[in-house]
Amino acid sequence: MKRAVFLDRDNTLIKDDGYIHEPEKVKLLPTVGEGLKLLKSAGLLLIVVSNQSGIGRGYFSEKEFHAVNRKLNRILKSDFEIEIDDFFFCPHRPDEKCICRKPSPFLILKAAKKWKIDIKESFMIGDKEIDVNAGKNAGCKNSFSVKEKTLMKIAQEILKKT
Ligand SMILES: [Mg+2]
Ligand SMILES: [Zn+2]
After folding, report:
1. Domains contained in the chain, number
2. How far, in Å, from the CA of 154 to the mean position of ligand 1?
3. Which domain holds residue 24?
4. d(CA 104, ligand 2 centre) in Å
5. Of the candidates 146, 117, 99, which has an alpha carbon nearest to the alpha carbon of residue 45?
């Protein structure tokens, strides 16, 4: 079984001033490239799990969401020679009461099934409580907030635990 780091995207990996959907605005947050490279070199899959209610609200399209993901991977590839392995997302508005919106563990469980990931040996990193709780609800070994420490610091902690 594989191990993974599940990652929130907006304001965890890239800067988001509100419903980011323009590829040209994609900018990595400090230490993200270095931190992800460290995790990847330790053999962990990098999997984004993202709430994208902007799609359900009609602010932008699913196509634009994917374009931002591609830009993120282009930057990671050119500057750090790594890539996010997969992207999972919830396109719904909170009031739709769907089953996939974080803090639901749905997206993590879906990713784990597809990639044959051992969730108990995997980790979640996000900037909001709902991210941390999604990791806990899924049964991840640890869930971290980038509000408390940089992604690089978190990556170093994860490496000590694996
Ligand atoms: Mg976020
Ligand atoms: Zn959903």
Report:
1. 1
2. 16
3. 4-161
4. 9
5. 117
